[in-house]
Automatic annotation (TrEMBL):
GO CC entries: plasma membrane light-harvesting complex
Protein name (record): PRC-barrel domain containing protein
Alphabetical list of InterPro entries matching this protein: Bac_photo_RC_H_C, PRC_barrel-like_sf
One of the protein's GO biological processes: photosynthesis, light reaction
Domain of life: Bacteria
Length: 286
């Protein structure tokens, strides 16, 4: 099943004992582009704001009723460790979250990227890892008042921090400028998520970028496979795509309310002359 992230964010979340709130954002594994957590906005139900929920805890999705169900009670969710909305999601926080709910840790089992070719553009193998600020010699991490460290100690601490940051927010990328071979081609408008029901416990991943190409004609957006992502320039708020600009501009328009079928996907990959992800032997079903 393919669904726009923006559309899914209009769905109501249901705990085992009643309505909980709505989806607000998605945290993505920078190494594989699998969706690891849904961010729930529960402020209509209890004071405390947003919660992180493992995608494997969601049991059913009803497109007609715009509802998605989670195998947890309201009380469990209310008492769960809350994310710091001003900081990256760290592995230690993920462990606390897994301990609270009894969830398995996804990083214990290696996962393949969602499409062949993703993660091959950099030495690190993961072009979407956000940067971590490294302070200069005369700066220390804020909040630690009784410890004075040298710049090299700070840098080592920051390097360790970066190794523990593997997730990024999809919402953060919306509005980023998209640059292709030949120049800027538009802005990131949305993403298309894939729910693979053939895999036990389900599996969510990012499949396509929805690009607003703008211009005087005000044409409908176009969609591009995520495997074409070459780099994310976080400081410039830009997404670098490994495709020709005119190839993207000449792609078939994709109205945001249009259902994406297998035929739609085949046409997309044929247009860009790319191998479809479902031909990848590592991919377990479409």
């Amino acid at each position: 099943m393919l669904i726009h992230a923006k559309k899914l964010s209009t769905f109501t979340m249901n705990a085992t004992d009643g309505e909980l709130g709505q989806l607000d954002d998605y945290y993505i594994d920078s190494n594989t582009l699998h969706v690891r957590y849904f961010v729930g906005d529960t402020r209509t139900w209890f004071f405390g704001g947003k919660v992180l929920l493992n995608v494997d805890a969601f049991t059913t999705i009803d497109e007609e009723k715009k509802q998605i169900s989670i195998d947890a009670t309201k009380e469990q969710i209310k008492n769960s460790p809350k994310p710091d909305e001003t900081a990256p999601i760290h592995r230690q926080y993920e462990r606390e979250l897994s301990d609270h709910y009894g969830w398995p840790t996804y990083w214990a089992v290696p996962a393949h990227p969602v499409a062949a070719g993703y993660g091959t553009h950099t030495a690190a193998g993961a072009p979407l890892v956000p940067p971590v600020f490294v302070p200069s010699d005369n700066q220390n991490i804020e909040g630690i008042k009784n410890a004075v460290r040298t710049g090299s100690e700070e840098q080592e601490l920051e390097r360790n921090q970066q190794e523990n940051v593997h997730l990024f927010s999809l919402d953060e990328l919306k509005g980023y400028h998209v640059h292709a071979k030949g120049g800027q081609v538009g802005k990131v408008m949305d993403f298309v998520l894939h729910y693979n029901q053939t895999i036990e416990s389900g599996n969510w991943s990012v499949r396509y970028i929805v690009i607003d190409t703008g211009g005087f004609m005000q044409k409908e957006p176009v969609i591009v496979p995520v495997q074409t992502i070459k780099e994310v320039a976080w400081f410039d708020k830009s997404l670098i795509i490994d495709l020709e600009k005119d190839k993207i501009e000449s792609a078939e328009e994709h109205p945001t309310d249009q259902t994406i079928t297998l035929g739609t996907e085949q046409a997309i990959f044929e247009h860009y002359n790319l191998t479809p992800y479902w031909h990848d032997k590592k991919e377990e079903g479409r």
